[in-house]
Amino acid sequence: MDKFDVVIIGAGVVGLAVGRAFALSGREVTVIESQSTFGTQISARNSEVIHAGIYYPTDSLKADLCVSGKTQLYDYCKERAIAHKAVGKLIVATDKSEIATLLNYQHQASQNGVTDLSYLSATQLRDSEPELQAVAGLLSPSTGIIDSYELMMNFTADLSNQGATLLYNSTVTGGQLKNTGPIITISGAENCSVQCRLLVNCGGLSAPEIAKKLGIASSLTPPIYFAKGHYYNLSGPSPFSHLVYPLATNAGLGIHSTLNLANQLRFGPDVQWIDKLDYRFDESRKNNFIDAIKRYYPGLDGHALEPSYTGIRPKLVGPNSTPGDFLIQDESQHGHQGLINCYGIESPGLTASMALAEHIVRHCR
User: Fold this and answer.
1) Would you say residue 251 has pLDDT above 60?
2) Fold annotation for 2-47+149-223+323-363
């Protein structure tokens, strides 16, 4: 049986970042991915936003890793000339009753170390974004957008330069958790079993299923709730120069407007709770989009909305629950040496990816 040093399951942005961090620390790294290339699921089906770290509870992993990860990500993008832009975000109150929530966001952001938010009046908002209808807002200048594919391309280049191996079309079908290190069974071009000194499960939507295949008891594997989100593109020129977000809900950040690097506007995601992975686009949700968007953009022409894509977020809590944190499960929680499981790595996972990777590497020293 072959013996590997560090094996990462999953080549999404987080799995690649974790593999890269271990490779840069001098470890021999193998990344295993069931799809034919990297980043085809959560990492390819999101808003591509660099988040500031505003909403998350103080001292949570989401807050700490988003704030530090944002700085690392901007620095890395500048160093590698990865397409990105700090366009800024407006969080808006469309009714006076929502202003108190805006002020709570500003306080929470400050507690998290995000001190660059500015409160804007209705007049200031109108001067900045004439098409926007709101009674007050917060400007987050450090929120930005990024080409996530280009980011992952650079992560894979770093891995290759450090001698790491990436195995595509390779699915983990089982395993055993031994005191000498996890053993995993891989199905692919060649079926094989390998033993690892360290195994990091960054399986995203499949992380709990993979953990169970490895032998983690169901009682130690958190339930994952799939939140499907639809995105619509707006045909024609964008009415906004900033990202525009309504107030957040428990399930997400609301149907917001984001720009891509070509300055095309898209709206989403909404939240549709589903039991199994299904990326089909449900066009019957369009009227809900129109109603939500017109609260802050009354000039919307509904005929200009064009179906774009869907994404699925792995959440640790279901409908009507307070949002959960990232869960990094190690031996102290599941009782097995050499295994780390990463659960519920949804937004702000892209922003936090480099900081999350360093967090795991430090934990393993």
Assistant:
1) no
2) FAD/NAD(P)-binding domain (3.50.50)
